[in-house]
Specification:
Number of domains: 2
Mean pLDDT: 93
Shape: elongated
Strand order of the largest sheet: 2-1-6-5-7
Helix content: 25-40%
Largest sheet: 5 strands, parallel
Number of strands: 9
Number of helices: 9
Oligomer: single chain
CATH architecture of the largest domain: 3-Layer(aba) Sandwich
CATH class of the largest domain: Alpha Beta
Structural class: alpha/beta
CATH topology of the largest domain: Alpha/beta knot
CATH superfamily of the largest domain: SPOUT methyltransferase, trefoil knot domain
């Protein structure tokens, strides 16, 4: 899978992609990450990629020209708007607080594409023509405002990469993560079995896989009910799950 990231601050990406799962995935050829400086496609002596907003107001707005030209150059198309209309471009995603919120379902959707283009916003945002005639999608990583879309791009690359075959050391790791199952993940334990008087639950140590899976399922249900009860409304629950939750006091729709 290929990620093309368009930014005014390419230096921000020098460290985060050089460690852990993303680095291993790059080294294994599972993903490619290409960071493009939007200013390289700005005209004029100062390579200005932003300007004052029409109508007044504080801050600066990212100009359409450098953003359009950078995407067209990387995609190798003379007119990205026409190619977009014909459905001949990969997803072109604006990272903006106005976008749909990233969650595990969205990450799984994005992981199905062989290529993603991520455009990092800055300042007061984008010229509206970028939003209307270039982007195919808009994504936010939460209901808060960052200085720019660079951190959001890093989050998307990480969240999508771990879903790709071969990216994780454990084949089913991504499937068992919090949110991937519709529930928060069950508590995890490792050696020693007793630490400062706190013991690992006995059922975990028995070697009885059926008992372990039943305990883990109930712990995941309990943790979700206590911390994110809203998730239970859409989680895939069995009748046994529902019986257990009702014993805790769960009431559907509450």
């Amino acid at each position: 899978m290929r990620f093309d990231i368009f930014t005014l601050f390419p230096e921000m990406f020098r460290g985060p992609f050089d460690a852990s799962i993303v680095k291993r995935a790059r080294d294994a050829g599972i993903i490619e990450t290409h960071v493009h400086d939007i200013r390289d496609y700005a005209w004029g002596k100062h390579r200005q990629a932003d300007d004052y907003p029409y109508g007044g107001g504080g801050g600066m707005v990212m100009k359409p020209g450098p953003v359009f030209r950078s995407v067209e150059a990387i995609l190798g198309v003379p007119d990205v708007e026409e190619a977009r209309t014909r459905g001949e471009v990969p997803p072109i995603i604006l990272l903006t607080p106005q976008g749909r919120t990233l969650n595990q379902k969205v990450a799984e959707e994005l992981a199905k594409h062989p290529r993603l283009l991520l455009i990092c916003g800055r300042y007061e945002g984008f010229d509206e023509r970028i939003r209307r005639y270039l982007a195919t999608d808009e994504i936010s990583i939460g209901d808060y405002v960052l200085s720019g879309g660079e951190l959001a791009a890093m989050v998307i690359v990480d969240a999508v990469t771990r879903l790709l075959p071969g990216a994780l050391g454990y084949e089913h790791g991504a499937e068992e993560d919090s949110h991937a199952t519709g529930l928060l993940e069950y508590p995890q334990y490792t050696r020693p079995p007793s630490f400062r008087g706190h013991r690992v639950p006995g059922a975990i140590l028995t070697g009885d896989h059926e008992s372990v899976e039943r305990l883990r399922r109930r712990q995941a249900l309990l943790r979700t009910w206590l911390r994110r009860p809203d998730m239970l409304e859409s989680a895939p629950l069995t009748e046994e799950d529902k019986t257990f939750l009702r014993s805790l006091g769960w009431k559907p729709g509450k």
